[in-house]
């Protein structure tokens, strides 16, 4: 992600609603992709552009507690929620103590997801414009709330609707799941990036791309439920690292795609951040996959070396083999061609 600064010169962050240094209000405009400095009044956000012209925006209705969403809408936008907030269809019961904070963390991770999707030129339309547009539901199950009907919320995607267990926002729950599922890189942001991958598979693959997909990822028509139950019984095959980005990716071509897609978004965001902090001069452009990966490799070597200096495990223990690279390249080409169409 880019670095952001208040007009007073102070460095500020993506989720900030005001500057700690000068006290002015801050808000993010997802159209210009800029964090703006100004002031909020009566549902409006007033800011000045570089030529000192006054600009007026609508604030997201969720700018108050518990979300403190700092995203803006155009002044004439008929919606009350920003493009990210309005994709959320269901939230957990806010009268229960942990849920307001869970919802806040979920929406923060979702806005970060949206930032990367928008920067890649991907369509993030919700259901008000597209029946199978993006939508989210954050549910609780009986593991954390005995009063709900659902015994076990399964994280997943169906026709654009992404379901997440709200408890994934708890550090404790996430830690337990990391151990139980052997997923050391399990994070909220990672869940979002993975699930949205299933959504874009549905949206981006033409007939022609599907033929290519099968060549790269395998045949997705293989019985999905059966594949998953085999995976949960036996785990990934030996030497899976040669062909897959994670153990879970071995379970089915759909999951391989979603895991690789999530990894693609990890690289995109992290390399953007590395660039913003001067760790690389490289700025990604279209049809530039090989340079992009070479630069990424250089940055990950640096990340690992820094961690080792602190006596920590490698920040990036992944090896991008030729097979994995061919999968990432396929995703790269698909995103490039859809961004061109837009
Ligand atoms: Zn300031
Ligand atoms: Zn919002
Ligand atoms: Zn999945």
Q: Topology, pairings included?
A:
Elements: E1 4-5, E2 11-12, E3 25-29, E4 34-41, E5 44-48, E6 54-59, E7 72-74, E8 88-90, H1 99-119, E9 135-139, E10 156-158, E11 161-165, H2 171-181, H3 188-204, H4 207-217, H5 224-234, H6 253-276, H7 289-309, H8 322-341
Parallel strand pairs: 8-9, 9-11
Antiparallel strand pairs: 1-2, 3-4, 4-5, 5-6, 6-7, 10-11
The structure holds zinc ion (3 copies).
Describe, in plain words, how this protein is organized in 3D.
With 342 residues, this protein is α+β, with helices and mostly antiparallel strands. The chain has three domains: 4-80, no CATH class; 83-204; 235-342, no CATH class. The protein contains eight helices and eleven strands. Helix 6 (253-276) crosses helix 8 (322-341). It is globular. The chain starts with a strand and ends with a helix. The model has no long low-confidence stretch (mean pLDDT 94). It binds zinc ion (3 copies).
């Amino acid at each position: 992600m880019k670095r952001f600064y208040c007009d007073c010169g102070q460095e500020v962050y993506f989720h900030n609603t005001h500057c700690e240094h000068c006290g002015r209000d801050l808000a993010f405009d997802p159209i210009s992709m800029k964090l703006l400095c100004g002031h909020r009044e009566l549902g409006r956000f007033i800011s000045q552009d570089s030529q000192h012209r006054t600009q007026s925006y609508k604030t997201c209705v969720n700018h108050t507690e518990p979300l403190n969403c700092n995203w803006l809408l155009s002044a004439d936008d008929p919606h009350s929620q920003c493009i990210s907030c309005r994709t959320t269809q269901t939230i957990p019961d806010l009268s229960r103590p942990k849920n307001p904070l869970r919802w806040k963390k979920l929406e923060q991770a979702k806005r970060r997801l949206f930032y990367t999707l928008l920067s890649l030129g991907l369509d993030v339309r919700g259901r008000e414009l597209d029946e199978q547009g993006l939508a989210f539901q954050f549910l609780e199950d009986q593991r954390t709330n005995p009063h709900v009907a659902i015994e076990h919320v399964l994280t997943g995607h169906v026709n654009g609707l992404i379901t997440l267990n709200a408890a994934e926002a708890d550090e404790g729950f996430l830690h337990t799941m990391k151990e139980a599922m052997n997923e050391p890189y399990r994070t909220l942001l990672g869940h979002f990036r993975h699930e949205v991958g299933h959504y874009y598979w549905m949206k981006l693959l033409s007939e022609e791309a599907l033929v290519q997909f099968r060549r790269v990822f395998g045949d997705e028509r293989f019985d999905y439920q059966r594949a998953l139950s085999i995976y949960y019984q036996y785990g990934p095959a030996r030497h899976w690292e040669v062909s897959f980005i994670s153990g879970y990716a071995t379970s089915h071509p759909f999951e391989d795609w979603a895991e690789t897609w999530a990894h693609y978004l990890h690289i995109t965001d992290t390399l953007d951040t590395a660039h913003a902090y001067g760790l690389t001069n490289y700025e990604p452009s279209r049809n530039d996959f090989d340079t992009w990966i070479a630069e990424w490799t250089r940055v990950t070597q640096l990340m690992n070396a820094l961690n080792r200096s602190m006596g920590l495990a490698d920040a990036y223990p992944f090896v991008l083999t030729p097979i994995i690279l061919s999968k990432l390249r396929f995703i790269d080409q698909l995103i490039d061609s859809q961004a061109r169409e837009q």
